[in-house]
Amino acid sequence: MTEKTITIREQKVHKDYTKVKLIILLILLGLLLLAAAFASKVSPFDPYEQDLGSALQEPGDAHIFGTDRYGRDMLSRVIMGSQTTIFSALLLVCIITVVGTVVGIFCGYYGGKLDAVLMRISDIFLAFPGMVFAIAVAGVLSGGLSNAVVALACISWPKFARLARSQVMTVKDAPYIAAAKLAGSGTVKIMIKHILPNIAGAIIVTAVLDIGTMIMELAGLSFLGLGATPPTAEWGSMMSNGRSMLQTCPWVVLAPGFAIFITVVLFNLLGDTVRDVLDPRNSASH
After folding, report:
1. Distance between CA atoms of residues 228 and 231, nearest Å
2. Residue 283 pLDDT more than 50?
């Protein structure tokens, strides 16, 4: 068996493994999103119902994740918190991906003064430490989950704008773009039909990888009191409310913390796998 044959077989095995891994991750995340979407029906207890007689019960048969200081079931609150945290992060990633990509495509395609002005604006946002700037914006907006999303959107769109712009700069002078112009295609049609599909891979991978980051940053703002406010079930807010009991009742903090950890790991693994699927060179390099 020649070395070339072995290499081809190894690449095929890796490709098959990547596809299986992608399917497994999509199934797991699909179940997670379904649980989040139907949190009120999946939760074994009312996540907001207080029962002071059952306050701070350790994890057991009745309450798998224990209860908090108000006697609320932690498992139910973690499930309900998934709806708040995950869907807020998904909304945020959609916003920054669309805004950043549109800005990047226009800047990369047209160049000139529009490109200079918008890129200088993005430089201003990128010049500040991201989380510090988000804390400042969220503080000015007086907190709240919606304001936390706005604050993180303000600091996160330039990354996608820069990425889209760099991708457009590499393809806008390609022969198929020139052919589309000669065929009479308008600017908008060229951007949507010819440029966007060719740069979508890198943007999709970055967006998927960014979901985990946005989950942590939203949870961080809520932990600091600048995101979701009690009694809303949100993982970062839940950790903040229980931090004073970390030594005596650690499950109050560990339950939402573990949920954040698992969710972020799953989305990061999905991002890496999608990158392998969309980039054949990456698969060949393994």
Report:
1. 9
2. no
CA–CA distance, 150 with 273 (Å, rounded to integer): 29
User: Looking up tokens 């891979």, which residue turns up?
Assistant: 201
Q: Are 199 and 279 in contact (CB under 8 A)?
A: no
Taking the CB of residue 204, how many other CB atoms lie within 10 A of it? 15
Separation of alpha carbons 149 and 89, rounded Å:
8
Per-residue pLDDT tens digits for 42-100: 999 999 999 898 899 999 988 999 999 999 999 999 999 999 999 999 999 999 999 99
Distance CA 111, CA 145 (A): 36
Give dist(CA 234, CA 222) in Å, integer: 8
Q: Residue 280 and residue 134: Cα distance in Å, rounded?
A: 36
CATH code, 42-269? 1.10.3720.10
Distances (CA, A) of 88 to 47, 146, 192, 247, 272: 19, 8, 27, 30, 22
What pLDDT does 153 receive? 92
DSSP H helical ranges for the chain = 3-37, 39-42, 74-110, 112-127, 130-140, 145-171, 175-182, 187-189, 196-223, 235-242, 251-278, 280-284
Instruction: Compute CA 198 distance to the chain's CA centroid, rounded to the nearest angstrom.
Output: 22
pTM > 0.90: yes or no: no
For the segment 148-162, what is each residue's pLDDT rounded down to a tens digit? Answer: 999 899 889 999 999
Contact present, 22 and 274 (Cβ < 8 Å)? yes
Cα(59)–Cα(253) distance, integer angstroms: 13
